[in-house]
């Protein structure tokens, strides 16, 4: 089955981280310049903002002059905190330094044998290069190139090699089984290793599909299956089969209206191979079921499909905060020196060592590259040092309006601009980035908030949306906005 959903729907669905002595542990108050326009003079000082936020847990921050490195204000800047997705800013700098902005991931098809009258006398290989952005559309383009190379049939096996990067069953073991932002990953990934589950009620019956969905091609997959069952709960259950993800869903939870949800894939190499087999069939090339092999790929190059350049891949990662992209580019960066890499934790540690060498950081523990794992930590002082000295990440961040709490119309402060990366986990909210004041002064900031005891107390069945997490996050974001507004006025000029 093939469908063509809207581009916006797919993008949103596929895409749904100086010196230490200069920091003081207590907030520093600096007189503000006269307020302009309707700005109220009674705005609270920064330490009062933290107290009045009602935010449980720890709050740390630092702001510095980006050009001189002067620390303008800080609160517990040396305290390690979970970065969440703000870690992706560090990962971006790591990848740009190790791989280069023009690097491209590459997925190949090899032919191990002679091609005689359209028949490949041997095996056909699908060879992954770790591309985290590969889609079913890309595989369709690859299969078309194979057909154009003159292959219409093979006599051997269809082999899949997925060992370009270390494989992991999921990014973080503590996340719920069914959340799509925590999929498996490895050397061959497809559609961010997510499968599109869709249901369409028709009277008393409910039609369901499991698709490797992309913009142009959405083949049904044999590697992920869904069964509807009559039970009160849980909504989703997962069982690992032999080369297949076996899902079940509580029938009553689907309701009477059509709907859809992305689910994680646990057999990414087979998932990609199965999708390639489906799109190849549209070209008249019938392939046997894929065989995953650990043996090095052999054969002549038949066709290749490349990712966008790394800079564009990172910009999309920062915009949509795609975890699998961060892990893939991070691990690819760790492998540049040719030293074998055991797992994701080892790669995160390698990135931390790189940052220590490059920027003089010292209060970091990285367990991954996306920030999804709660055990990763970084201090505000180290994040400031990285952002101030690193080159290339500012242009990858999203613009952020700085609202004026002294106005009643909600308009942003005129002449002030910022770019930033957010980070959110349960009872964790972070914001890092750069700000330009009305006079053009460039500032760099890092704000970390976390209520670790509350997060640690969440039972497994509530980890997707625990009670109180949304209101806590809203309070944190309000505090972040207020801090930025205060800083924009307080540090208007040098």
Blueprint (SSEs and pairs):
Elements lengths: L6 H9 L30 H7 L5 E8 L5 E5 L11 H13 L6 E11 L2 E9 L8 H13 L4 E2 L3 E4 L32 E9 L2 E7 L12 E6 L6 E5 L4 E6 L8 E6 L3 H14 L9 E2 L7 E7 L3 H11 L2 H12 L9 H16 L4 E2 L11 E2 L1 H10 L8 E2 L17 E9 L2 E9 L5 E9 L1 H5 L12 H22 L4
Parallel strand pairs: 4-5, 4-6, 6-13, 9-11
Antiparallel strand pairs: 1-2, 1-20, 3-4, 3-14, 7-8, 7-12, 10-11, 15-16, 17-18, 18-19, 19-20
Helix pairs in contact: 3-6, 3-7, 4-5, 7-8
What does this structure look like?
The chain is α+β, with helices and mostly antiparallel strands. The protein folds into 3 domains: 7-101 and 311-490, DD-peptidase/beta-lactamase superfamily (Beta-lactamase), CATH 3.40.710.10; 106-166 and 270-307, 3-Layer(bba) Sandwich (D-tyrosyl-trna(Tyr) Deacylase, Chain: A), CATH 3.50.80.20; 191-215 and 222-266, no CATH class. The protein contains 11 helices and 20 strands. It has helices at 7-15, 46-52, 87-99, 136-148, 268-281, 310-320, 323-334, 344-359, 380-389, 452-456, 469-490, and strands at 58-65, 71-75, 106-116, 119-127, 153-154, 158-161, 194-202, 205-211, 224-229, 236-240, 245-250, 259-264, 291-292, 300-306, 364-365, 377-378, 398-399, 417-425, 428-436, 442-450. The strands form 5 sheets. It has a 6-stranded antiparallel beta sheet with strand order 2-1-20-19-18-17, sandwiched between helices. Strands 3, 4, 5, 6, 13 and 14 form a 6-stranded mixed beta sheet that branches. It has a 3-stranded antiparallel beta sheet with strand order 8-7-12, with no helix packed on it. A hairpin with a 5-residue loop joins strand 1 and strand 2 (71-75). Helix 3 (87-99) runs antiparallel to helix 6, helix 3 packs parallel to helix 7 and helix 4 (136-148) crosses helix 5 (268-281). The longest helix is centred in the last third of the chain and has 22 residues, at 469-490. The N and C termini lie far apart (62 Å).
């Amino acid at each position: 089955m093939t469908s063509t959903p809207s581009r916006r729907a797919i993008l949103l669905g596929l895409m749904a981280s100086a010196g230490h002595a200069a920091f003081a542990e207590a907030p520093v108050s600096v007189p503000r310049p006269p307020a302009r326009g309707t700005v109220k003079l009674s705005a609270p000082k920064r330490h009062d903002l933290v107290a009045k936020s009602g935010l449980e847990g720890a709050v740390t921050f630092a702001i510095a002059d980006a050009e001189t490195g002067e620390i303008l204000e800080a609160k517990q800047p040396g305290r390690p905190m979970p970065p969440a997705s703000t870690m992706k800013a560090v990962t971006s700098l790591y990848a740009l330094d190790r791989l280069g902005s023009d690097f491209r991931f590459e997925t190949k098809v090899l032919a191990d044998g002679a091609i005689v009258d359209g028949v490949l006398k041997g095996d056909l290989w699908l060879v992954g290069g770790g591309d985290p952005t590969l889609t079913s559309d890309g595989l369709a383009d690859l299969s078309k190139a194979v057909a154009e190379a003159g292959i219409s049939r093979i006599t051997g096996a269809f082999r899949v090699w997925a060992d370009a990067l270390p494989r992991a069953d999921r990014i973080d073991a503590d996340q719920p089984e069914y959340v799509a932002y925590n999929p498996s990953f490895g050397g061959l990934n497809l559609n961010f290793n997510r499968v599109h589950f869709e249901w369409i009620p028709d009277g008393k019956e409910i039609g369901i599909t499991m698709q490797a969905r992309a913009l142009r091609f959405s083949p049904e997959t044999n590697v992920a299956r869904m069964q509807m069952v009559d039970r009160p709960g849980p909504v989703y259950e997962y069982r690992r089969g032999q080369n297949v993800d076996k899902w079940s869903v509580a029938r009553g939870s689907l309701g009477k209206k059509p709907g859809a949800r992305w689910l994680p894939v646990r057999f990414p190499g087979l998932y990609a191979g199965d999708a390639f087999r489906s799109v190849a069939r549209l070209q008249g090339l019938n392939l046997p079921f894929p065989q995953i092999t650990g043996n090095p790929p052999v054969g002549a190059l038949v066709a290749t499909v490349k990712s966008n350049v790394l800079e564009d891949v990172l910009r999309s990662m920062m915009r949509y905060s795609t975890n699998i992209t961060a892990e893939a580019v991070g691990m690819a960066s760790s492998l540049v020196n040719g030293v074998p890499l055991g797992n994701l934790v080892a790669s995160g540690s390698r990135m931390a060592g790189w940052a220590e060498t490059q920027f003089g950081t010292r209060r970091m523990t990285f367990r991954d590259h996306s920030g999804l794992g709660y055990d990763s930590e970084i201090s505000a002082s180290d994040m400031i040092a990285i952002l101030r000295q690193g080159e290339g990440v500012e242009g990858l961040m999203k613009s952020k309006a700085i609202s004026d709490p002294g106005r009643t119309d909600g308009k942003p402060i005129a002449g002030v601009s910022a770019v930033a990366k957010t980070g959110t986990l349960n009872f964790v909210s972070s914001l890092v980035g750069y700000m330009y004041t009305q006079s053009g002064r460039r500032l760099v900031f890092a704000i970390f908030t976390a209520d670790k005891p509350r997060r640690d107390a969440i039972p497994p069945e509530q980890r997707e949306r625990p009670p109180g997490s949304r209101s806590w996050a809203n309070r944190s974001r309000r505090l972040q906005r207020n801090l930025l507004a205060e800083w924009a006025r307080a540090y208007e000029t040098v």
